[in-house]
UniProtKB/TrEMBL annotation:
<feature type="transmembrane region" description="Helical">
    <location>
        <begin position="195"/>
        <end position="212"/>
    </location>
</feature>
<dbReference type="InterPro" id="IPR036640">
    <property type="entry name" value="ABC1_TM_sf"/>
</dbReference>
<keyword id="KW-0812">Transmembrane</keyword>
<keyword id="KW-1133">Transmembrane helix</keyword>
<dbReference type="GO" id="GO:0016020">
    <property type="term" value="C:membrane"/>
</dbReference>
<feature type="domain" description="ABC transmembrane type-1">
    <location>
        <begin position="38"/>
        <end position="218"/>
    </location>
</feature>
<dbReference type="InterPro" id="IPR011527">
    <property type="entry name" value="ABC1_TM_dom"/>
</dbReference>
<dbReference type="InterPro" id="IPR039421">
    <property type="entry name" value="Type_1_exporter"/>
</dbReference>
<feature type="transmembrane region" description="Helical">
    <location>
        <begin position="90"/>
        <end position="110"/>
    </location>
</feature>
<feature type="transmembrane region" description="Helical">
    <location>
        <begin position="172"/>
        <end position="189"/>
    </location>
</feature>
<keyword id="KW-0472">Membrane</keyword>
<protein>
    <submittedName>
        <fullName>ABC transporter transmembrane domain-containing protein</fullName>
    </submittedName>
</protein>
<dbReference type="Pfam" id="PF00664">
    <property type="entry name" value="ABC_membrane"/>
</dbReference>
Length: 218
């Protein structure tokens, strides 16, 4: 008599024999489409950096142009490139913000194109390889497995994989770049306040990782 868990999941024995499936996925399938991965990653980084520029530029412009509390100084921009007059600095800020919004939209499109292409190509490769493998199995395998369960793997599981590669990785990289970018700006503006603000982040990450590690087997 079969064990209840085997009846609930006829592929449990196969899953237990599989070691590091995600590592194999990226090593075997991801390497074929690393160009799209690099494009999506590059687009994510540049798009998020450009998204962070407008509030930074506005803050510097308000302090330097309208309140005269600080010098008009932009990080990573040589002072010789900046206008010397208040009016010039104002229009330079407007142009830089407009460029940030326009460039951000372009790189958001590049990011989405890269991640979508990466996910869709891997999905196609996994699905066709799985179907090809199933065609080569003997009849004993199909006698012990439910056809509906196998079709679910070919359809639903591969679709979920595509959503993870597209939405999950996209969001993860976007969030990582945003946190690093905001942390850099905070450290540049006020290091002490930045430390106090960012201190809970590794604690929250550690607690979240431990929680997922505990509930994952269930």
């Amino acid at each position: 008599m079969s064990h209840p868990s085997d009846e609930d999941d006829p592929f449990e024995d196969i899953r237990q024999k599989t070691d590091n499936p995600m590592r194999r996925l990226f090593a075997e399938y991801g390497a074929r489409h690393k160009g799209y991965f690099a494009l999506g990653f590059f687009g994510s980084v540049i798009a998020r950096i450009l998204d962070l520029l407008p509030p930074l530029l506005l803050g510097i412009a308000v302090d330097a142009i309208f309140r005269n509390d600080a010098a008009y100084d932009l990080p990573l921009v040589p002072q010789s490139w900046l206008p010397g007059t208040t009016e010039g600095q104002f229009w330079f800020t407007i142009g830089a913000i407009a460029f940030a919004f326009f460039g951000g939209s372009v790189f958001h499109w590049i990011r989405n194109y890269g991640w979508n292409s990466f996910a869709q190509n891997i999905q196609h490769s996994v699905r066709t390889d799985t179907y090809d493998k199933m065609q080569r199995l003997n009849m004993d395998f199909f006698a012990e497995k439910q056809t509906g369960e196998m079709m679910s793997i070919l359809s639903n599981d591969v679709n979920r994989l595509e959503r993870f590669l597209n939405d999950g990785m996209n969001s993860a990289f976007r969030l990582s770049v945003m946190v690093i970018g905001i942390a850099g700006i905070l450290l540049w503006l006020n290091p002490r306040l930045a430390v106090v603000t960012l201190l809970p982040i590794p604690i929250i990450a550690a607690v979240t990782y431990k929680f997922i590690d505990i509930i994952q087997p269930k």
